Amino acid sequence: MANYTTSTPEWAVSNSSAVMSGIEGIKDTTVGNINPNRVAHRKKVLTEDEIVEGVSKGDRMILSRAITLIESNNPKHFEKAQRVLQRLLPLTGKALRVGITGVPGAGKSTLIESFGNMLCDEGHKIAVLAVDPTSSITRGSILGDKTRMGTLSRREEAFIRPSPAGGTLGGVARKSRETMLMCEAAGYDVILIETVGVGQSETIVRSMVDFFMLVVLTGAGDDLQGIKKGIMELADAIVVNKADGDNLVKAKVTRGEYERMIEFIRPATEGWPTHAYLASAAEKTGLPELWKVIQVFKNLTTESGVFRKRREGQLLDWMNSMIDEHLHTIFFGDPVVNGRMPEIKEAVLNGTISPTQAVTELVKIFDIKRIGG
23, 37, 215, 364: which could join 102 in a potential S-S bond, CB 3.0 to 4.6 Å? Predict the structure, then answer.
């Protein structure tokens, strides 16, 4: 037991009860919810070696800090994060990457929790990368996925990491690819990426995962108006969720409607026919069948070579996205460009020049500066 010290404050009347001195008086850090290992991690900045060792051993606290380092916008953290990632790359690539998207309210988080618990029961280690929308006004995100996945978040075999979209298109976070690799290096063999509620353009997650799942609800007409063909033609499976109780009959009708639509859409993956499936996250029905479908998909695409080609494509897409991000950073970080930016913005607002002319002028300034350097 910890030894609490007591004292009588100056304002106390005589013979009054003494009060405990607070947490400063506690010498045993195991009291309450304070974990001495976590305290040790917080007291110092982890070295590159400590991060690599901790992540490779599956330490979830160090994994969280490694992801925070990866996500940091601080230029001082970039080189360290890339060195860590480079050293951990040999441990990556062995997990099955599954993207899960759908219209808002389709029950993605609940489905993931039931699906993740089932996989944990089968002996898998699950990492869930949940991307929350970022407010265009406040720039904030709720990041409430751990609350929605209460039972899964308490399991030792699971790791849940909510991240803000931060204005990134595609329903994913800016550093989702790197975060996914960190989780693979930590030993998680199934990575579930939950995107924000999708529209037609939010499809970047397709280039990050092996299997892409679209979660929908009954009332296909409304859903189809929301998601259109753009997202459907990228899905390897369409899951009609909440297929239980009084809603089961409607779910079966919706499944049939999607099956008919799929006939007119080219398969998302070569050699793999996309189908619609029924599932209930609440009653946990349809989930074993869905997992079997994913396993069959992996086996077939591995044998045909499509799986390897998709992984190679993911690497090239990652490289291209990093080029875009790097060029964006150095362009807007250029002092000469920043010096002319207010003047050119003012000219655009006054109608003196068009936005196209403004971009041409800024790029010309940037090019001349680079050539001159």
Answer: 215
